[in-house]
Amino acid sequence: MRALGQASADLSEALRAARLRTGASARALAGVLGQSALAVHEFEHGDRVPPEGLLAAYATAVDLDEVHLRQLWRAAAAESEPWTEASRDLAFERVYADFLLANRPGFERTDPSPSHSVFASPSDVPVTDLVEALAAGGRVVLRGHSGSGRTTYLHRLAVEAAYAIRHGQRTSAVSRVPFLIRVPEYGRGRELPRPADLLQGHGGERPVPEPPDGWSERLLAAGRGMILVDGLDEVPPDVQDRVGAWLTYLLSLYPSLACLVAAGTEPGSPQWLESLGFAEFRTGPMGFADVRRFVHEWPKADDRVPGERWDAFLEAVETSAGLRELMTTPVMCGAVCALFEGTHGRLPISRSALCETLLPSSEPSRDAGATALGEAVARNLSAAQQKAALRGIALSVLRNGTGRATHQQVLHQIHVVLGSRYDDSDEAEAVLWSLLSRSGMLTTSGRSDITFVHPVFVSYLAAGLFLDPEGFHELVDQAHDVHWRDTVVLATELAARRERAELIRAILHRADAEPEHRTELRLVAAEAAAAVPELDPDIRDEVVELTAAVIPPRSEQAAVELARFGPRLIDLFPRPDDVQPDDPYVPLLVRAAELIGGEVAEAYRARLLEGVSYGQPVRRRPPLPSYALETWDHPAAARPRPPEGDTRRAVLLGSDPLVPTLRDLPDLHTLVIEDNPLLTELGALTTLTKLRTLVITRCPRLGDLTSLRNTGVMFLQLDTEPDDDQITALASSPRLRALYLPRVKAAFDAARLGRRLPGVSVLGRQRIRA
Fold first, then answer.
1. Residue 68 and residue 95 in contact, taking contact as beta carbons nearer than 8 Å
2. DSSP string for 615-639
3. Closest CA to 111 of 157, 166, 150
4. Contact criterion met (CB below 8 Å) for 583 and 555
């Protein structure tokens, strides 16, 4: 602390005494002033003189005569060293940093880099270099779906920068002065800010004191500014182009200005990001470490849930595939934590209750970029109407089996659900725009398709449409389909006790009648029974008995067959603590967990091996199944054809549609698709529950590989290196174990691609020149 002069001591004592008379805490006063509690402490102890622009608000807050306060302030300021322009700028930076720290609750002091998974793509920059790139004045675009945590990441960066400024950490990797710009606030009626007005980006949260004249221009010219642009994918293309022109102007004036733009994952959006030299990074699903950190940082209410319940919650996150499946983004993690706290620490977490809490309210839109028609529609749509529209869209997505619906399908569903008033395409478009911008559940996939930010919303919303006898019939008919599995489970959770028993009983009856779907149907019934607390005891006993015939697996082939049901199957496996040391099926449980893959399965396998000992140690199997990877590198004419009558292997040549042919080949194990110029996606393969090896060659328009996540494909051969979106799709395919690329460029790096595809062996052979 510096030595105080009499005038500074008088000022600090007056401020402290005035606050104490009001009975307000330093933190409460800090909130009123838009400052940090530390700043108020420094004002009251003479370490700092409050900025002049803060005096009026200060006098009102502590009920102090403003004229008297200004007299004390002038005396203290005159007693201090004369203020240069640089010292005034530096003082305002600290005020601005206090404002950022006070107005970002939950981010008071965090390290931004591990807030959730972020990786470079293409990987010509190391994963950890996003923050370093900004510190060096770099230009970065952070891509991710809605709800993937991009806004959270930007806020963390802003707060980390503010913390570094506030504590004089000029060597920090994030020591630039940040300006947050929310693009949706700059619709057709509002211009993007000039350099002198960058603080406008905070909307109503603008700091109380005005900055010194020319402060932001001097800051930017000195190369110490950082622009954080959020919500680019939430506005129409014309507004995106305006943002591009604005950034082009700013970056031409201030070439060393650091810039981070949060954008969606749509291919080709927008072109100016590439022309301005933005390096691309992407958000990825949160791993165990990310989720643990998020839960530890969650602002917990001390009187609601004791610490041991939070410990049990974290254990459940690491051991429950169903819960882990939900917590893949910061938005979903926050929703799960809030529900857990709101139910006073109740486990397991109800997915239907979680989805219900996230459904949109009927509050009017605050999107400045919305049209007048869109705002009128948003005001007139009740919460029930929004939910009905979302349910209709979810039904389209579910029945498509592709995870998305076309623009026209969505507009049709809005008309069907909301009635003749929305026959007009402009009205239906306005509803869709309102749902995209306000619901938090929808996003765009490409230029025309609509999808939900998490698959659980599709299952939950659609499930609500099947809670009657007619709906039950369709659920039972589709219960063997992997796309419908979660909808069946959630419909059981939503149904009344008597109806849920009827649904599970009907699925079991179908399993008895259809041996080809018996395992799938019994496992769906087991998941449904496990999801509900109340069920007819006879039905539950029957489900337990039938499940015990399948789990644990009794053979290697049974383990392989079980693995295709994915990570959620782990929740039906016996708990490691309940497994007897001499259980002969432990190696097969270990094998099934290896084949399933993923963090929960690997944790289950590790706990199983730790808790069981034998006369001889359990030998870990290799991570790949014991099948040879089938490849075809010779001309098509010489390619061996499947033996006549062999229904396990097929070679499809030419541009004929896949669906009619594959419908008659349910037992396919190996499939070659060749010379198909019309093939664009692989949704037709999701009905092939036994498919394990897939070879695709000379299909130039194939771009969408997302349907692979819903197949049992373990071995995949492509004749071109996957692009970024395809890599993301492959990374989310839980059963994929090997990727073979027979023709790769000279610069191909199999190890780098393997890091993007954990658990997948990447093989490349013939190298060609670029």
1. no
2. SSPPPPPPSS-S-PPP---S-GGGS
3. 157
4. no
Amino acid, res. 652: L
What lies within 8 Å, CB to CB, of 640 at 6+ separation is none
Distance CA 589, CA 546 (A): 18
The model's pLDDT over 448-490, given as tens digits with 9 standing for 90+, comes to: 678 888 889 999 999 999 988 788 899 999 999 888 999 999 9
The answer to whether the beta carbons of residues 326 and 311 sit under 8 Å apart is no
Residues 11, 36: contact at Cβ < 8 Å? Answer: no
Taking the C-alpha atoms of residue 734 and residue 155, their distance in angstroms, rounded to an integer, is 32
Q: Give the model confidence (pLDDT) of 374-430 as tens digits.
A: 444 444 677 888 888 899 999 999 988 888 888 888 888 888 888 766 666 677 887
Q: What is the pTM of this model?
A: 0.60
Instruction: Reduce the secondary structure of 338-396 to three states and give it as a string.
Output: HHHHHCCCCCCCCHHHHHHHHCCCCCCCCCCCCCHHHHHHHHHCCHHHHHHHHHHHHHH
Can you tell me the distance from the alpha carbon of 609 to that of 365, in angstroms, rounded to the nearest whole number? Answer: 54
Predicted local distance difference test score (pLDDT) of residue 380? 65
Helix, strand, coil shares, percent, the chain, to 5: 50, 10, 40
Contacts of 438 (CB under 8 A, 6+ apart): 360, 365, 367, 378
Q: Is the dihedral of CA 198, 202, 203, 209 positive or negative?
A: negative
Question: What average pLDDT does the chain have?
Answer: 78
**b/e map 499-530, b = 16+ CB within 10 Å:** bbbbbbbbbbebbeeeeebbbbbbbbbbbbbb
CA 634, chain centre distance (Å): 42
| pLDDT digit string, tens, across residues 646-660 | 567 888 888 777 877
